Amino acid sequence: MTVGRIFIFVFASMLAGVMIGMLGNLPPGEPALENVAGPRVPSVATVSVRQAPSSAAPVPSSSSPSPAPPSTPTPVARVKPRPGPELPPGQAVRAEGEGWWRTVAGTTAQVGGGRVHTYSVEVEQGAVLPAEQRRFAEVVDRTLADPRGWTASGDLGFRRVDVEEPDVRIRLTATGTARSICGFQLPYDTSCYAGGVVYVSAPRWFRGAESFAGDLAGYRQYVVNHEIGHFLGRGHEPCPADGAPAPVMMQQTFSVSNDRLAEITAATPQGVHVPRDGNTCVPNPWPTAAVTR
Hints:
Layout: H1 3-24, E1 101-103, E2 111-112, E3 115-124, H2 130-145, E4 156-160, E5 168-173, H3 175-182, E6 192-194, E7 197-201, H4 202-207, H5 216-231, H6 258-265
Parallel strand pairs: 3-4, 3-5, 5-7
Antiparallel strand pairs: 1-3, 2-4, 6-7
Helix pairs in contact: 2-5
Organism: Lentzea pudingi
Region (Disordered): 48-98
Protein name: DUF3152 domain-containing protein
């Protein structure tokens, strides 16, 4: 080994010893030299947590009270409306006719006794189909011949004619014609008696009245008997007692309730005082309902 190489070896050994000594003198807990350049960042373990959807209802624990069920709204009791004067839904009827009437051909034998009143059955042209004209006449005939009708008193009768001049004409009439004759004071479809003629409103004939609750046959009998009652000189009547059969001369087309009828006719007098007494009758088409057929 040459002297130069020996010198380098000795110098390197001395330098290594100095470095080892310096490292041995560092204070405890100090970082090693290779870590001095930046702070130590502790490693953190991550946990994946599965979240329930936000719309999911929370599950109550055993230590918390169960949530109260949603409150159910208390049903409101509805008062059944008293039948009024509005025209029930049903068959469409022409609003206007031609303004003239054709007598339906046919006659009947006398029914009842005492003074006999003749009548004709007529239909406004253009108001109804031809097939309805004879049906109208048949209902009128059966109604006036029924023992529960006006002949029950025994002192009057009826007979239908088609050529001779009758005592009273019974006419099925279009809406516009009936309103123009019966008046516009009450804004409802209605029939009437005027100047020796019964004008039967076609809408009422085919659709009836709310008070009869769908009993169209009963309503038709009522309207014939009611208007013939006017021909015989009878005036309007109120309901006499709660739950009683309505008098045939009560304006049952509008209502069978005195309170409701008084309200409807308050501004248009109908020839009778209707008391507001709470009485509501049962609809009735006959002058003498107690008579057995």
